[in-house]
Amino acid sequence: MADTATTASAAAASAANTATDTPPFQLGKPRFQQTSFYGRFRHFLDIIDPRTLFVTERRLREAVQLLEDYKHGTLHPGVTNEQLWSAQKIKQAILHPDTNEKIFMPFRMSGYIPFGTPIVVGLLLPNQTLASTVFWQWLNQSHNACVNYANRNATKPSPASKFIQGYLGAVISAVSIAVGLNVLVQKANKFTPATRLLVQRFVPFPAVASANICNVVLMRYGELEEGIDVLDVDGNLVGSSRIAARHALLETALTRVVLPMPILVLPPIVMSMLEKTALLQARPRLLLPVQSLVCLAAFGLALPLAISLFPQMSEIETSQLEPEIARATSSRTVVYNKGL
């Protein structure tokens, strides 16, 4: 009965659409194809769209109700695919898919860039003291941990100890590497003051990248022991694979290394050139606003690019997995949820 109602709603929405590039609406499915990098890039641009931060409570209720009407086949005449896609985008940006509760604004994926950019600016400030280095690395990893927790898979209970373990591991690794590299740079007598300042600006990248890997491994170590679910082409559960878990963690770790690269490497290069311009030399007060804009642009580009590198549902050949998995299905390939 539910399938019939959904089909009826789909037909009604399709009939309401004129000639347009908007694809037919599919409840719970991505708007853009996930088999290509460009499709994934457009999909994640939708997910991180900061405009959804300004959606009112009333608009959210209307979006949720519209999707409920579609699901039960009670759509009003004239509702378009564009309206349905927009409603789904709003719901997915604000409500947790498992708990259906509102995610705190700074920890939504759509809030990651606007709330994270000030932290990036702080990480890249020149002439950092030991205290400021520790503070900004701690704040960055705390923000990352809260975003990870707020957008976690909540279908299965996860002990708080796992979250705390990952958080402490990320903070300790980030702070120790950043402080250690800063001390080495300060003691490097061969560097001129200008060179030392430039090198110091690149210190946050190895610290953040290593902390991100540490966070992923500690938070998801259980997957390496227990395996993750793999599905056949029809979406049927085949089994739980530790080999697939290793692939998933490797892909996620690579994403977490690529993500901070443009954010923490490009701004120092750009700023080192802009600081030599007559405008900024004559108006040093503009340095911080200009650096903030450069960091914002780098963040806005890096986030969708990095998380689009691998499909959310990754594919692997059955022959590469455990023998019991290969025997359990006739499919040549299976898919697994990589995670973000």
From TrEMBL:
Its main location: mitochondrion. The keyword Membrane applies. Residues 1-22 have a biased composition (Low complexity). It is found in: Mitochondrion membrane. InterPro entries: Mtc. Coiled coil: none annotated. One of its GO terms (biological process) is amino acid transport. One of its GO terms (cellular component) is mitochondrial inner membrane. GO terms for molecular function: citrate transmembrane transporter activity; monoatomic ion transmembrane transporter activity. Belongs to the sideroflexin family. This is Sidoreflexin. The gene is SFXN5.
